[in-house]
Design brief:
257 residues, alpha/beta, Rossmann fold, 9 helices
Length: 257
């Protein structure tokens, strides 16, 4: 599923060459996505509250020769406390983070402030209507303990958050369709049923031959099968835009008056 999200981003993130375009990865985890963004020519900043992850991410980026990356420690709930982030980025990426945060309205507003006029937000989060299994059917946490605090989001919920923060919705789509979910469920089932008796490496090897299925067939075939079986995309994906200028009541832009 991580690869599905990366493919969603790649299709919307053209390669650049030393243009100074900056990307902020909110909730970067171990930094893999941030480094992928940097490999496409962007200056990439990955934020996480976990200092151990940030140290490891900085080390891996150095080993990969990715000089245009940085991994400062910052909690996604505290973006508003970092004044150096305000209006500093062309793109903000937030993948599978918002479902962990109680005040999602504040997070949207903070990400909006981090963008330059004309900037874009790319976000993924669980689809409210995903087909649940034993490991993601709830109950969901009432505190921010690292687990999900809500089931997910519908397109209406994301539009509501965008409108509140000031974003214009460009696109809402879905990722991780039938075959991605099938392979993921297999691996999660192995972990659940066998635990430490099957190491992560063995679980990966068992599922590895099937990992080609999502790449080959999770286009229209996976979507069609999922639709027929009532198995929608697991994550909902948003592309949103911060307007370059504000319009006034007369219908003319401020620059035209």
């Amino acid at each position: 599923m991580v690869f599905d999200r990366w493919r969603f981003l790649c299709r919307r993130l053209p390669r650049v060459r030393s243009t100074g375009e900056r990307v902020l990865d909110v909730g970067c985890g171990t930094g893999a996505l941030t480094m992928g963004v940097a490999s496409r020519g962007y200056e990439a900043v990955g934020l996480s509250w976990d200092e151990r992850n940030q140290t490891a991410a900085n080390r891996r980026a150095a080993l990969a020769g990715l000089k245009r990356t940085s991994f400062p420690s910052c909690d996604a709930r505290c973006l508003d406390e970092r004044t150096e982030l305000v209006g500093a980025f062309d793109i903000v990426v937030c993948f599978e983070v918002i479902e962990h945060i109680l005040d999602d309205r504040k997070l949207f507003r903070d990400m909006f402030r981090c963008l330059k006029p004309g900037g874009r937000l790319y976000l993924t989060t669980p689809n409210y209507y995903y087909r649940s299994s034993f490991y993601d059917a709830g109950p969901f946490s009432t505190s921010e303990d690292g687990s999900h605090v809500r089931r997910g989001y519908s397109s209406t919920m994301l539009r509501e958050l965008c409108a509140d923060a000031g974003f214009e919705v460009e696109e809402i789509t879905y990722v991780s369709h039938f075959f991605s979910q099938l392979v993921t469920r297999l691996q999660m089932s192995l972990a659940h049923n066998f635990g430490h008796r099957i190491a992560n490496e063995v679980q990966w090897l068992i599922s590895a031959p099937l990992r080609v299925l999502p790449v080959l067939f999770d286009g229209w075939i996976g979507r069609w099968i999922g639709s027929a079986l009532g198995w929608p995309g697991y994550s909902i994906a948003l592309a949103a835009y911060k307007k370059r200028f504000e319009t006034v009541a007369s219908g003319k832009s401020a620059s035209e008056q």
